[in-house]
């Protein structure tokens, strides 16, 4: 009995050790992968931002880049939170469509009008199943911003699923914003869609 | 004129006049808590809604929203235009220097809180920053310490209490002071007590300096957030909830950053 137990323990230990050996290099690899991913994505983004094109031109150039590197659908689902489950398929499609535009507007608003933006990559650490890549973004005549990029590998290829600028998570803040808005409109998802449509319309007419 | 005011404010030896404001303060605090208790909304019944309610940690939401509306209206017609004019009139480098000065003058508060949080390396950094910037940085106008490898870090009594395990308590939006919580509000009071500038002897021109410093610091601080706050109010569907969420997350991240700072007190090259 005793030997059987200890043998089982030994087996368990061996299995755990083997698993650790397998996961440790995998984790290191994905950390390295996340770093390269953020680095190339950042370089491409900054090349557009720092160019002499007009703001509208920059936006059109940024859009495919964001679609390739940012998992907008996953962020959208997260932001709708518990209301995603109660939304009709039609509402879900409408929401994701308008959410893409909101996200693109928001990102290009934040970085669009700057020239001479640079960034440096710092530590990469595991954040749950994802990788968190620390960066410092320097904009001329502005205090530097510490931004952490959360890169997920769950879809098979690396995708940005969240950005934490100086602490707060972009998607969590947005989720709480939407939840509060829907809560104050008697739980109506249509009210949210209407407000988001309105926001996109207001954005395109300066 | 100042001499007269100064003599009136001389600390008195008898206890009665000092005790009276304290009693009034206690009464006001009690009244405040009673008002808050009266304003707390009952938690929702639905489990999902309850989880959301707990996450927001804002039982006094209706009162907080009123405070938010009042503050934002006042800001729109007072602080925001002043800050805009300040940005327009004062060149970036000068604003940056003044910001550094405000930061340096606050370094003693950071130091005491680092000590309170039991983080000697951080306390050492704050102490070195204070000494270097006050002397080589010409009274704090130039952040020499940053170039010497001592970058600024934030700390306040609210965060120190957080590292001690004190929960934040319900969220509060304080008029003209912005987002806070029971713990952070109390922390603000402690910080005022920790700031040496509130103990300067009166009648040496230092009081005037303290006023100028506080007013300038407020304008400078508001100017730093001009774009961010404008954008937030434009982008958010419910700016109140967005500010609440961002504030709570930021405080949590700051407290975690302090707790996770296990650097040794000896310099890196010594190890």
From TrEMBL, chain A:
Could you tell me which Pfam families the record lists for this protein?
MlaC
The record's InterPro entries line, in alphabetical order, gives: MlaC/ttg2D (IPR008869), TAT_signal (IPR006311), Tgt2/MlaC_sf (IPR042245)
Query: Domain of life of the organism in this record?
Result: Bacteria
Q: Which UniProt keywords apply?
A: Signal
**UniProt signal peptide:** 1-28
Keyword Heme assigned? no
Protein name as catalogued: ABC transporter substrate-binding protein
Organism (species) = Gluconacetobacter takamatsuzukensis
Upper taxonomic lineage:
Bacteria, Pseudomonadati, Pseudomonadota, Alphaproteobacteria, Acetobacterales
TrEMBL record, chain B:
For this protein, the record's Pfam families field holds: MlaA
Any one GO BP annotation for this protein: intermembrane phospholipid transfer
Residues forming coiled coils: none
* UniProt keyword Repeat, yes or no: no
Return the GO cellular component terms, semicolon-separated. Answer: membrane
Q: Does the keyword Ribosomal protein apply?
A: no
* InterPro entries the UniProt entry points to: MlaA (IPR007428)
At the top level, the lineage of the source is Bacteria
Keywords, alphabetical:
Lipoprotein, Signal
Indicate the family of this protein: Belongs to the MlaA family.
Q: PANTHER family under this entry?
A: INTERMEMBRANE PHOSPHOLIPID TRANSPORT SYSTEM LIPOPROTEIN MLAA, LIPOPROTEIN VACJ-RELATED
What is the recorded name of this protein? Answer: VacJ family lipoprotein
- In which organism is this protein found? Gluconacetobacter takamatsuzukensis
């Amino acid at each position: 009995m005793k030997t059987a137990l200890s043998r089982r323990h030994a087996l368990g230990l061996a299995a755990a050790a083997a698993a650790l050996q397998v996961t440790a290099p995998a984790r290191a690899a994905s950390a390295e992968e996340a770093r390269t991913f953020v680095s190339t994505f950042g370089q491409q983004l900054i090349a557009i931002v720092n160019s002499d094109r007009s703001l509208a031109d920059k936006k059109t150039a940024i859009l495919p880049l964001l679609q390739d590197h940012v998992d907008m659908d996953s962020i959208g689902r997260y932001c709708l939170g518990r209301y995603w489950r109660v939304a009709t398929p039609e509402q879900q499609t409408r929401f994701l469509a308008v959410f893409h535009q909101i996200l693109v507007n928001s990102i290009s608003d934040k970085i669009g009008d700057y020239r001479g933006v640079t960034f440096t990559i710092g530590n990469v650490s595991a954040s749950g199943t994802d990788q968190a890549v620390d960066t410092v973004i320097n904009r001329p005549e502005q205090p530097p911003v510490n931004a952490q990029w959360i890169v997920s590998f769950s879809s098979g290829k690396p995708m940005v699923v969240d950005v934490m600028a100086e602490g707060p998570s972009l998607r969590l803040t947005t989720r709480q914003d939407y939840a509060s808005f829907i809560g104050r409109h008697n739980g109506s998802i249509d009210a949210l869609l209407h407000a988001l449509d309105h926001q996109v319309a207001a954005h395109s007419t300066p | 004129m100042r001499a007269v005011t100064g003599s009136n404010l001389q600390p008195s030896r008898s206890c009665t006049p000092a005790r009276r404001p304290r009693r009034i303060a206690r009464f006001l605090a009690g009244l405040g808590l009673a008002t808050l208790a009266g304003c707390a909304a009952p938690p929702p019944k639905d489990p999902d809604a309850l989880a959301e309610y707990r996450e927001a940690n804002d039982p006094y939401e209706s009162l907080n929203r009123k405070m938010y509306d009042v503050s934002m209206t006042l800001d729109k017609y007072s602080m925001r235009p002043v800050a805009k004019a300040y940005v327009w009139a004062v060149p970036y480098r000068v604003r940056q220097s003044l910001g550094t000065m405000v930061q340096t003058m606050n370094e003693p508060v950071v130091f005491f809180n680092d000590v309170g949080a039991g983080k000697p390396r951080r306390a050492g950094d704050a102490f070195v920053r204070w000494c270097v910037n006050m002397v080589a940085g010409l009274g704090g106008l130039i952040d020499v310490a940053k170039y010497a490898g001592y970058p600024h870090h934030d700390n306040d009594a609210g965060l120190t209490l957080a590292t001690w395990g004190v929960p934040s308590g319900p969220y509060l939006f304080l008029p003209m002071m912005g987002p806070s919580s029971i713990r952070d509000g109390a922390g603000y009071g402690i910080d005022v007590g920790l700031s040496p500038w509130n103990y300067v002897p009166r009648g040496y021109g230092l009081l005037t300096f303290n006023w100028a410093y506080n007013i300038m610091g407020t304008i400078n601080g508001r100017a730093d957030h001009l774009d961010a706050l404008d954008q937030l109010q434009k982008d958010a569907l419910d700016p109140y909830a967005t500010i609440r969420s961002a504030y709570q997350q930021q405080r949590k991240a700051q407290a975690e950053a302090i707790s996770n700072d296990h650097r040794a007190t000896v310099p890196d090259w010594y190890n």
